[in-house]
Write a structure and sequence with these properties.
This protein is an alpha/beta fold. The protein is about 35% helix and about 15% strand. It has helices at about 30-40, 65-80, 90-95, 115-125, 135-145, 160-170, 200-215; strands spanning about 15-20, 40-45, 55, 100-105, 130, 150-155, 175, 195. The longest helix is centred in the C-terminal third of the chain and has 16 residues, at about 200-215. The radius of gyration is 17 Å and the shape is globular. The mean pLDDT is about 95.
Length: about 220
């Protein structure tokens, strides 16, 4: 059954909207997760872009079954405040963008870990509204933007999320950001025409260019 998603805490002004994923966009995920796994006696072998089948026991080199992988992911989310750190310049960039646009975080994780993430983001100065959901991101973005005649931007590291938002909010500028990790090199590529930002400085340039083009 689909979750009932409450967006009432997100209040948008009469200005552009920037919606941003968190894991491996704002906060490092793969690298600290690998460190976490080693502490649990496991390791991630980047043989394909999936976790089940690629997390193995260090002792036996046998791959963990899906329930055990899910348990480890949830244990990591439970402990995320001790492991995840922000990417370079993300705090400064989003703070600057927030002077001209509403910034909202949309993270793909079980909602029961939202308060853990909220504390972590607040601690590093990223106090923007947070939505935690495992539902497809396109319909969520559609609800947020609600057909407003204002620029909107969506940033994510996953091709399927970028495609989902593009398909539900055709006027949205979708921007691909991801770390150069061995695992991400195996990820499905976004469709042609979706621009990749190499870092947060580059992302800011692209976002401001898009917003200014809509204001002209």
């Amino acid at each position: 059954m689909s979750e009932i998603l409450d967006l009432s805490h997100v209040r948008l002004g009469d200005r552009p909207l920037v919606v941003c994923d968190i894991d491996d966009v704002v906060l490092h995920f793969v690298a600290p997760f690998q460190d976490f796994l080693r502490g649990e006696g496991h390791e991630l072998l980047p043989r394909s872009f999936r976790l089940t089948g690629n997390i193995v026991s260090i002792e036996t080199q046998l791959a963990l079954e899906h329930p055990d992988v899910r348990r480890l992911i949830e244990a990591f989310f439970e402990a995320q405040e001790n492991w995840q750190i922000p990417f370079d310049f993300v705090v400064q960039t989003l703070d600057a963008l927030s002077k001209d646009a509403d910034v909202v975080f949309l993270t793909a994780m079980p909602p029961r870990y939202q308060e853990h993430r909220r504390r972590l983001l607040d601690r590093i100065g990223l106090t923007f509204p947070l939505i935690a959901s495992e539902e497809p991101k396109g319909p969520i973005m559609q609800r947020l933007h609600d057909g407003r005649p204002l620029p909107c931007v969506f940033i994510d590291d996953m091709a399927h999320n970028l495609h989902s938002v593009r398909d539900h909010v055709a006027e949205c500028f979708v921007l691909h950001m991801m770390p150069d990790s061995p695992l991400h090199l195996l990820a499905p590529k976004p469709d042609d025409g979706i621009i990749r930002a190499t870092d947060w400085g580059h992302a800011a340039e692209l976002i401001y260019t898009h917003i200014q083009s809509k204001a002209a």
